[in-house]
């Protein structure tokens, strides 16, 4: 078992002292060394204290990835403050909800988001990163790079309040400790098989777990991060090649979006060896590996469980693998008992390393009590085990649709529909039924230049799905609203069925 009692900040101190000129990350090609990161994070910690931010106070950041953004994150940790990451696209009631719940003592935006923060929450000062001269600029305040000699908080104290993506409802603020962030980096190292000299391509924003978990990796392995501003399917492989990246990361529908791109010489000349992440459908696994010449290393995890819970390092097709050394996984049925091999049950995570699971959701005792019971995390996800004990992921319990005596998985329906060559992406929700519990409504977006009617799609699905799985309603739509991890925001999809195509129903005799 690894020793995580020091958290992650002391690891940066060691790296900065032993190899200050070594590159921690390249942000759009510009290097950030360990020495510079350490000094800049010292200045951040001093600045926070001068502004009255105390241990345990919240600091909200609504900024894109940058060298100073990374320094802010380490400086917040040194000062014992708690980071509240906010999506730079957030606005309105959603933004006010996050800020009013966390009550930050200080907020940081960029030239675009500072005004948004001020309008949403007036009880804390707003500083601006990258603003024009005359604004309250963070850069102007970071002048003290002398040693910040205060003791770090205990390793199991909160470092961040990480809000879930909220694809099906209000986001919940997961309390993430210093130890949990350290474990997320250790998990990334194991899942990705990272080794000295590797370059990790990173498109994920730091306000998402997919980006945040990467902060620790260069501290535990001699790798370099290569950051780009955002995910772009059309530019992806060129950016990977330009970065000299050995690894790419995927979430949500990233692999499907890449497969939908036109064939290119870059498909085999990008230089990456490994694609690692979560959410690779079995149906496209081999196709992706063969087209792009990479090995897929799949995992499963949640922010609540230090990001990564299981790892498939045995190349088992369609599996998310086995538990990390610090976790145990059970699959429980509705009666609370373990299900048999091959049967589906709720994924329940236990740990043999105290502190590896979240202590709960910030100011949300009801959600905490529901998820954390008897020392275990009840994930709300569904899995099964094969004969060798490898776990298969079957989606969220809340994504399932019940009706006609059957329980239908949205994950499986969407995975099947996504195979149609004319579709770019798709999502499924349950809608009110006139007979039974729910009917299925499928939303689909078409590839540029493609043509496909709902009736044609339904007929195509009829050969690939059971009759009770074939959607009753289909709506061809425009681009989906997505979370930072490129997951479709299902709670924004309309349940109205009055104007979309409806599959003819056969009368029962």
- How would you sum up the global shape? globular
State which percent range the strand residues make up: 15-25%
Question: What is the gyration radius calculated from CA atoms?
Answer: 23 Å
- Residue share in helix: 25-40%
Distance between the termini: 63 Å
What's the total helix number? 15
The biggest beta sheet reads:
5 strands, mixed
Q: Detail the poorly predicted runs.
A: none
- Average pLDDT, rounded to a whole number, is 91
Name the structural class.
alpha/beta
| Strand count | 26
Describe this structure in words.
- By secondary structure, the protein is α/β, with parallel strands linked by helices.
- The chain is built from 15 helices and 26 strands.
- It has a 5-stranded mixed beta sheet, with helices on both faces. Strands 16, 17, 18, 19 and 20 form a 5-stranded antiparallel beta sheet that branches.
- The protein starts with 8 loop residues before the first helix and ends in a 7-residue tail after the last strand.
Summed up, what is this model?
This protein is α/β, with parallel strands linked by helices and 509 residues long. It is built from 15 helices and 26 strands.
Supply database-style keywords.
509 residues, globular, 5-stranded mixed beta sheet, 5-stranded antiparallel beta sheet
Describe the secondary-structure layout.
Blueprint: H1 9-18, E1 23-27, E2 30-33, H2 34-50, E3 58-62, H3 67-78, E4 82-85, H4 92-102, E5 106-110, H5 113-120, E6 126-129, H6 138-141, E7 158-163, E8 173-177, H7 178-192, E9 199-202, H8 209-212, H9 217-220, E10 224-227, H10 236-243, E11 247-250, H11 254-259, E12 274-277, H12 282-292, E13 295-300, E14 310-311, E15 322-323, E16 327-332, E17 345-351, H13 365-371, E18 372-373, E19 376-385, E20 391-396, E21 401-403, E22 406-408, H14 410-417, E23 423-432, E24 438-446, H15 454-462, E25 473-476, E26 501-502
Parallel strand pairs: 1-10, 3-4, 3-5, 5-6, 9-10, 11-12, 12-13, 24-25
Antiparallel strand pairs: 1-2, 7-8, 13-14, 14-15, 16-17, 17-19, 18-19, 19-20, 21-22, 23-24, 25-26
